Amino acid sequence: MDFHALLDLPLGAPIVLYQGGLAAGRGLDVLVAATAGFPEGVHTVLVGSGRQRDELGRQAEELGLADRVHFIPAVLPHELPAYTAGASVGVIPYQPVSDNNFMALPNKVFEYTGVGLPFAASDLPELRRIAEEAGCATVYGPFDPHGLATAVTRILDPAEHETYRRSAANFGQRNTWENERLILVSEAKRIAGWE
């Protein structure tokens, strides 16, 4: 997906992408606030729908970021990879407001890396593990807009960006359903005593 044409953005402007529900506990207010600290010319795009849409739009307006924070309604699952591939950096800003969020390993990890997209993520256990082991992400404090801006800036650094992209693509190629299915079936057979 060409975000530049869709949103009438300058050609080559880096895109920071969040895709998913616009809901409380996802740290989207932190993402909007962090946009002010992104390098000049970087745009934030949120693809999804939810209760926080209007609130986030108002926040962007109040912070003077309405020209840098953009919203696209949710798209069909089979269309999502084309949108994901059009970004420069993904964001997983979940906040530890529940055990579910704290321990989450969201589908976004695999959606982003499946198209070679590096990401910035809240410093939560599973997200930190992926960032450290795969080298495809950086982490930041879940409630810290400055930390998120720093993480995104680091990934976008021309000296680092290609390394992050390669690491994301490598992780994505290793962690596909086709590969995971073999592990799952093998483990099920072992537990059932069929091996």
UniProtKB/TrEMBL annotation:
SUPFAM superfamilies: UDP-Glycosyltransferase/glycogen phosphorylase. PANTHER family: GLYCOSYLTRANSFERASE WBBK-RELATED. This is Glycosyltransferase. Keywords: Transferase. The keyword Transferase applies.
